[in-house]
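User: Here's a structure from my thesis project, written as structure tokens. My advisor, Dr. K., wants to see whether a designed sequence matches the one we expressed. Can you design one independently, without my sequence as a hint?
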């Protein structure tokens, strides 16, 4: 590539420039026009060319720059030009505008000539045909500088071609050249470069098609389905993969088994052709086999909310709810097609979601415009995302919606029966011919001598007739009250309507109950019991109803009485008083037999007693342990009404603290009325366990064997049940493993299972000196070290107190002076001078000492020896 930086042509251009622009060179704040030629644009230094440095004269810095030709690459604030950003060779003009005013001219221009550049190609490029297109410019190394774009591409035949090639069907090596035109001042001829493009044919996995089947009904013929039948135009020897593929080379699958095992869904099957060139990737074609499940809505239910009354037609809204049957319906969005019967009916399809087995959707109110029964029938339910492979099962999925008529009372007649004050009144409703048979709630008002508004009652209408009760609480005053029905509601349909029918109710007064009183005295069993009822005022003929409670019970009894001066008596039948004890008579009702009006009485009662003779107490034999020292107060039965005696004829009862003995005792019961029962005999048995017996010499042991409480028990006649304490009273229970001590005192009691703890005990003083044989390991130490370290600080003959309990020990120094005298009560010498004070301050010095041991048993002679003391 020819590059000329300074040549004759540049000189001529410079001369012409000076000649043409010379009238503008004086008094310019922007300086004088200038030029620069850049032939080696690929030089990295040309990324930062300061145009200000090419201005002549004395330009004022701080101005701005502009690109006059749209060449780009210039920073308008710094005047730095990136020559490599210019995309074609040629000459470009840039204008500098100086800051400030007062200059003949404040702009100057710089001409920049850019030499042609054909780029740095990579001679070889390799592409895969599946990339479809290839831009020839991508064969250049653009990390340094891209080639100029004003050149021309040609193929190997010299034909001009666009830089963007379609390589889809190409395969092999192809030659291309790129030529850019020369730029005067830099180039004398066009610049050309070449590239070689290698296109590798991509693997062809073919074109697949998808398959849609109803898995529930269509798969009997697909137990050995060849997936490759869904593919065309593929290279051979590809690899198959997907659900049910057992080998990459075997595309046969059992769709029926797949559906049974994995259910409905989209199953992807891939055919992959492997590439034998790294420039082309493996290629895969995917085929989708969709297996859908037929939904079975058998047993499903549909309900429409709500049935309405005819006065709601214009404002009602409706919602239908489908509940799945035996088969669970997946949560999803569905298209629901339904039909509504009737003069305004029709068919509609809506979208709604099944959630947790239920689907709700609105039903247009325009279908329901008059009284009647309308059938809502679902004819189709299909998932929105379903592809329609299956025909879902829908059987008899229908419901009725009813628009009910209002209840009407026009022409009806209301006839109340006369009643008594505070008593219920029966009201007859007749001639209600516009009411259908059924159940209704009515609302009524009471006016006149009594007043109550907004009262309610429930009636059952048959053939236009019914009755209802006006509660006695609304008939407080005697006189005439008017009953007016203001509203009626059909309880089955909820439909309600207003009304204005009325009738008059006559209310008779009640007897005066305020002064009525009853009195009954106490009686003995089987005596006649007279009842006096008073406070009856001016009544002359009455019926009194009463009831017995407490010890004697009766149903409601009634008796007709003639009244004299406000008072009447009667006798309670003996058959009602069969039990003794307290009985309450309650007079519950008083009726005026002339008007048949009665009044219930409250708290008109009296209590009386039928005194019994107490029966002999029920008793059982009693037994106690002697050690418990049971007294009369421990006998049963107990209570203040019971007294205990030591004979059947005794008059004075025993004190509660009297200690019991085995024998017979007698108990009587006295009633509050002073009645005393026959005596009941109770046999009392005081039990004790025999005291333990110690075997002969059972208290003697050899201390060398470390005897325990268990060993002491074994020396009794009852080793299994004897227990030992360290004191006869309030002592501590000793375990069988407790070690016995010399001259220790132990107290044994007999405590058999499920029997009494013995009241007596044995006292045993243990001796641990019953040792007949001297053990082989018995020895007398020959030294000790009383230095206070806790080891061998005393001279002690181990276990000698058990073998020779009466022994004595004397120790002398080498001068024959006595140092120590000991026995079982003083068994250890600690190295102090016990016999003579003043020798070494009472401390025996280190050295050899001599002992004499008197066994004092079995005429055994004393033993002499020596020992060494070393502190």
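Assistant: Designed independently from the structure alone:
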């Amino acid at each position: 590539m020819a590059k000329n930086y300074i040549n004759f042509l540049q000189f001529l251009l410079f001369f012409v420039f000076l000649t043409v622009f010379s009238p503008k060179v004086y008094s310019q704040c922007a300086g004088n026009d200038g030029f620069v030629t850049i032939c080696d644009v690929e030089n990295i230094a040309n990324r930062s060319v300061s145009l200000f440095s090419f201005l002549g004269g004395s330009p004022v810095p701080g101005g701005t720059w502009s690109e006059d030709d749209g060449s780009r690459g210039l920073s308008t604030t710094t005047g730095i030009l990136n020559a490599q950003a210019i995309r074609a060779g040629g000459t470009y003009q840039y204008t500098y505008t100086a800051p400030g005013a007062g200059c003949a001219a404040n702009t100057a221009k710089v001409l920049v000539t850019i030499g042609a550049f054909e780029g740095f190609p990579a001679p070889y490029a390799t592409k895969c045909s599946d990339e479809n297109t290839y831009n020839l410019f991508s064969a250049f190394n653009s990390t340094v500088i891209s080639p100029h774009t004003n050149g021309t591409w040609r193929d190997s035949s010299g034909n001009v071609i666009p830089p963007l090639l379609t390589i889809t069907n190409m395969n092999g090596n192809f030659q291309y050249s790129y030529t850019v035109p020369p730029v005067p001042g830099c180039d004398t001829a066009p610049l050309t470069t070449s590239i070689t493009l290698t296109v590798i044919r991509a693997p062809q996995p073919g074109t697949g098609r998808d398959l849609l089947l109803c898995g529930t009904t269509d798969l009997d013929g697909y137990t050995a389905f060849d997936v490759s039948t869904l593919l065309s135009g593929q290279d051979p020897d590809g690899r198959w993969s997907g659900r049910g593929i057992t080998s990459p080379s075997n595309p046969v699958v059992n769709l029926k088994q797949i559906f049974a095992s994995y259910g409905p869904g989209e199953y992807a099957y891939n055919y992959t052709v492997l590439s034998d060139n790294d420039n082309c990737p493996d290629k895969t074609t995917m085929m989708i086999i969709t297996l859908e499940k037929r939904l079975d809505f058998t047993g499903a239910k549909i309900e429409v909310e709500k049935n309405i009354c005819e006065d709601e037609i214009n404002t009602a809204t409706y919602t239908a709810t489908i509940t799945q049957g035996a088969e669970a319906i997946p949560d999803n969005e569905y298209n629901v097609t339904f039909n509504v019967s009737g003069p305004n009916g029709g068919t509609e399809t809506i979208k709604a979601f099944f959630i947790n087995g239920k689907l709700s959707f609105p039903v247009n109110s325009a279908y329901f415009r008059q009284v009647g029964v309308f059938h809502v029938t679902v004819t189709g339910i299909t998932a929105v995302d379903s592809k329609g492979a299956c025909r879902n099962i829908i059987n008899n999925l229908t419901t009725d919606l009813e628009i009910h008529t209002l209840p009407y009372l026009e022409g009806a007649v209301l006839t109340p029966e006369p009643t008594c004050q505070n008593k219920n009144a029966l009201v007859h409703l007749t001639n209600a011919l516009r009411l259908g048979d059924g159940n209704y709630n009515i609302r009524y008002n009471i006016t006149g001598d009594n007043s109550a508004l907004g009262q309610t009652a429930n009636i059952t209408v048959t053939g236009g007739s019914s009755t209802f009760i006006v509660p006695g609480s609304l008939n407080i005053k005697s006189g005439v009250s008017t009953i007016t029905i203001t509203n009626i509601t059909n309880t089955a349909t909820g439909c309600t309507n207003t009304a204005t029918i009325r009738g008059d109710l006559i209310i008779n007064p009640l007897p005066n109950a305020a002064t009525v009183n009853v009195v009954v005295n106490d009686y003995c069993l089987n005596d006649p019991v007279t009842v006096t009822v008073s406070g009856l005022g001016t009544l002359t003929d009455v019926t009194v109803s009463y009831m017995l409670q407490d010890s004697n019970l009766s149903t409601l009894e009634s008796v007709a009485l003639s009244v004299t001066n406000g008072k009447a008596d009667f006798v309670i039948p003996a058959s009602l008083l069969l039990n003794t004890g307290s009985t309450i008579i309650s007079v519950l009702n008083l009726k005026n037999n002339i008007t048949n009006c009665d009044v219930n009485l409250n708290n008109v009662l009296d209590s009386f007693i039928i005194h019994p003779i107490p029966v002999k107490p029920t008793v059982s034999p009693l037994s106690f342990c002697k050690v418990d020292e049971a007294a009369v107060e421990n006998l049963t039965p107990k209570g203040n009404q019971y007294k205990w005696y030591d004979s059947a004829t005794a008059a004075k009862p025993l004190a509660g603290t009297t200690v019991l003995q085995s024998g017979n005792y007698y108990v009587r019961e006295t009633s509050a009325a002073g009645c005393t029962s026959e005596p009941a005999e109770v046999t009392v048995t005081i039990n004790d366990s025999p005291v333990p017996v110690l075997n002969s010499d059972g208290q003697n042991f050899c201390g060398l064997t470390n005897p325990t409480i268990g060993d002491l028990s074994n020396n009794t006649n009852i080793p299994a049940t004897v227990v030992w304490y360290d004191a006869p009273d309030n002592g501590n229970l000793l375990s069988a493993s407790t070690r016995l001590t010399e001259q220790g005192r132990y107290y044994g009691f007999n405590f058999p299972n499920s029997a009494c703890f013995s009241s007596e005990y044995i006292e045993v003083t243990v001796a641990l000196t019953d040792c007949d044989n001297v053990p082989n390991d018995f020895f007398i130490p020959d030294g000790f070290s009383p230095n206070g370290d806790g080891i061998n600080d005393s001279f002690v003959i181990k276990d000698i107190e058990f073998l020779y309990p009466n022994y004595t020990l004397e120790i002398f120094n080498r001068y024959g002076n006595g140092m120590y005298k000991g026995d079982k009560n003083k068994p250890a010498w600690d190295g102090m001078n016990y016999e003579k004070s003043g020798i070494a301050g009472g401390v025996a010095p280190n050295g050899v000492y001599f002992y004499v041991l008197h066994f004092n048993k079995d005429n055994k002679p004393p033993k002499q020896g020596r020992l060494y003391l070393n502190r």
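When you compare it with your expressed construct, this may help: The two ends are 117 Å apart (CA to CA).
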